[in-house]
Write a structure and sequence with these properties.
By secondary structure, this protein is an alpha+beta fold. 25% of the residues lie in helices and 18% in strands. Strand 7 and strand 8 form a beta hairpin. The longest helix has 23 residues.
Length: 260
């Protein structure tokens, strides 16, 4: 009777040995020097997936902390050249899941901002860009005279303000994609390091809803795509490409118009 018992024990041990990697693959133990962004990229998930799975309210993590990795959107197959946007998607997540950069997605699909909509179809391979461009629903077209013209230069000054929208005066400061403690990913999932020239501002969501388009005097039309611990009330923080530009901007009182 001992032999069958030993066989069953061996089988049970084998079964446990096979099951262990599956469990380990769904978590990550934080190592010294880790960041949420690095962990997310290495495990093909988004920063938001990890934060939601672990109930995190900030990007602060600690060595030996065990994090659930959450679930990522399945990658498009190698043969697929297009992707249809789903509710909750961000350009950063789509780019990561398809092995391309946010800048490539924006270039291939003629995008001028990070705003995307469910049902929109994107080229996720360069060869598909031409066929998708005519079918993808565009963001609101710009009027020829009433909206500001975005200059393709290093200058951040806009010459014409929008004609309508909620206007207010706020205190503005500036930051860069590489500021101390920054992950390079905004609160809404925008990868600002892939394109430091993007127009993104950090806001207090109770004053300016995240995702809003905001015209900032002297800066241009931006996306309210980030938050900050010191950004409360009528305060905003402007993304600048370099530390020199951020320091030069300093702290100013500016007029803004919330367009939507």
């Amino acid at each position: 009777m001992k032999k069958p018992l030993l066989t069953l024990t061996a089988l049970a041990g084998l079964s446990l040995g096979v099951a262990a990697p599956a469990s380990a693959a769904s978590t990550h133990t934080v190592q010294s020097g880790d960041t949420l962004y690095r962990i997310a990229v290495n495990n093909n998930v988004s920063v938001n997936d990890i934060k939601q799975a672990n109930g995190l309210n900030s990007n602060m993590i600690y060595p030996n902390q065990v994090l659930k990795l959450g679930k990522a959107e399945a990658k498009a197959s190698n043969s697929s050249n297009t992707y249809t946007v789903k509710s909750g998607d961000t350009l950063y997540r789509i780019a990561t899941n398809n092995g391309v950069t946010v800048n490539q997605l924006m270039t291939w699909n003629g995008l001028s901002s990070d705003l995307i909509f469910p049902g929109q179809q994107f080229a996720v391979k360069g060869a598909a860009a031409a066929s998708v461009a005519n079918n993808a629903p565009a963001a609101k077209p710009k009027a020829s005279t009433s909206t500001p013209v975005t200059k393709q230069s290093t200058s951040t000054t806009q010459t014409q303000a929008p004609a309508s929208g909620k206007t207010m005066t706020v205190e503005a400061t500036a930051y860069t994609p590489y500021c101390a403690g920054c992950s390079g990913i905004t609160a809404t999932g925008i990868d600002v390091r892939s394109n430091p020239n993007q127009k993104v501002i950090a806001v207090d969501p109770s004053v300016i809803p995240l995702g809003s388009k905001v015209y900032v005097e002297g800066y241009g039309e931006a996306i309210a795509g980030d938050t900050g611990g010191a950004i409360k009330g009528n305060k905003i923080d402007l993304l600048m490409p370099t530390q020199e530009q951020a320091i030069q901007f300093g702290r100013q009182s500016v007029k803004i118009t919330v367009l939507n």
